[in-house]
Amino acid sequence: MRLHKIKRPGGLYTFDFSTVAEDDDGTWLLAPIGSPWRAPHDSGRSTVPVVVLLATGRPWATWWVGDPADRRLEIDVCLPPTRIEEGWQYVDLELDPVLHRDGNRVEIEDWDEYDESIRTGNMTSDDAKLALVTAEGCAQLLRRRSEPWLERGWKLLADAG
Fold first, then answer.
1. Which bin fits 88, alpha (ψ -120 to 50), beta or left (φ > 0)?
2. Domain residues of the chain, as ranges?
3. Are 6 and 15 in contact, with CB atoms under 8 Å apart?
4. What range(s) does the DUF402 domain occupy (predicted)?
């Protein structure tokens, strides 16, 4: 299964995953170490395991990243993901709430990319509003850690390890 992440104007980023579960929270994907990825400027294989949770109608995708130097949960704020023939795709809206597991620090990253997308017209004002509201809401969700699926992602990542 493939996940296509579309960055405007950066192009198409493609990741190979396998589906590990589908439930009320969405579709759970796994990319173990060595999984292929492709970007407009490069390609390679993942050096860390990753679990992704996607759901149609929800303007974000959650990535659990098993990087030993910085285990983190990243939320890609995006236009709602859609299923396509070969897997999933979404348009990235730049802002990324991130929970760094060590220290439990939450921050919103990529403000510079967000500002540039607005300035260059690569993001509509409606998409910019959606990105801002969603990023702030997701950052609060990460701070509260009240959703059971937050820990489920870490478990799936550990089980894949």
1. beta
2. 2-160
3. no
4. 46-145
Edge-first strand order for the sheet with 87-91 is 42-45, 36-39, 11-16, 2-7, 87-91, 82-84
Burial of 102 (C-beta count, 10 Å sphere; 0-12/13-18/19+)? exposed
Location of structure tokens 């395991």: 49
Summarize pLDDT for 30-43 with one digit per residue, the tens.
Answer: 999 999 999 999 99
49/72 Cα distance (integer angstroms)? 11
The DSSP H or E segment spanning 36 is strand 36-39
Fold of the domain spanning 2-160: FomD barrel-like fold (2.40.380)
Is residue 78 packed enough to be buried (19+ CB in 10 Å), middle (13-18) or exposed (0-12)?
A: buried
How far is it, in rounded angstroms, from Cα 85 to Cα 97?
29
- For residue 86, give the DSSP letter: T
The pLDDT value recorded for residue 116 is 95
pTM: 0.95
